Structure formats: C-alpha cells, structure tokens
Amino acid sequence: MQPTIKVKKMRPAAQMPMRATPGSAAADLFAACDAPVLLEANGGRALIPTGIAIELPSPDYVALVFARSGLGIKKGITLSNAVGVIDSDYRGEIAVGLVNLSAEAYTVQPGERIAQLAIMPVACAAFEACDTLGETERGEGGFGSTGTR
Question: What is the pTM of this model?
C-alpha cells in the first residue's frame, strides 16, 4: 500500500517533491533559496532550504534524504551528513546540508534539484543488553574481512 505524505509549503518558492520517472524510488527535492548559494571549492558547505515540511502517516515510516547521483558524480556536490533522517514527529522545514568535494566552486540555483527524498518503513527495534552474541562464520571480522574486488 502506498502511503500518503502531507506536504506543507513553507516558502513561496517551494516546490512539491517530484519523482522523475514512474520507476524512481525517491522524489527530487528542490532548492527554495531566495538567491543563488555559492559552495566554495574543497569543502564549502551550506544549508539549503527546500521550503517544505512533511507529515508522515505514522511512526512506522521515516523519510530519508539522499544525495543526487548526478550532482555527486558530475559536480562533486553531496550531502554534508551522508543521509538525512526525518523522523515521523518532525514538522519543521526540511533543509539539505550540501558540501562541495570538488576543486571548483559550485552555485546552487533557486529551484534546482538538490537531493532525493525516500519514504521507508521503520522497524522499531527493542535493544537488550547481553554478555554474549551468537556465533557466525564471519565473527568479529570487520572492514575488508570478507575480501575486496
């Protein structure tokens, strides 16, 4: 069943999230800034407003903000916090932290697609303290322990 997400426009320049194709897993988020925002080269960061707030249908859902692959690969622009988590009880404006990892400055234009918003089900886990964990073939092997390509 497809959940319905209520969207409130918080700024005049706000645009509704939009899936680019019927097969898109996430909807594009748009910059609702009043003027272009410069991201300086080599680590320049800015918090870009989207101009929208959302209401998820229940605590059984979370909204996740991901980078746009085209901006990341072509321009070196990605999220400053890797993935944004929007909890079901948050009602404020969604803003996207962007960082410029390239050697060239980049200007975010008003109305530009800046990130993607995915709505996902949540498994609310209970956490239990213990002294031992079950055995696996991998065990405590971490970073690179299963081999590299």
Answer: 0.88
Positions of E strands within 10-49: 27-30, 37-39, 45-49
3-class DSSP assignment, residue 87: coil
- Give the C-alpha separation, 23 to 127, whole Å: 36
Which tens digits make up the pLDDT trace of 10-66?
A: 999 999 999 999 999 999 999 999 999 999 999 999 999 999 999 999 999 999 999
Q: Which residues pair with 6 in a beta bridge?
A: 55
Instruction: List domains and CATH numbers for the chain.
Output: 6-121 (2.70.40.10)
Distances (CA, A) of 117 to 26, 122, 144: 5, 15, 30
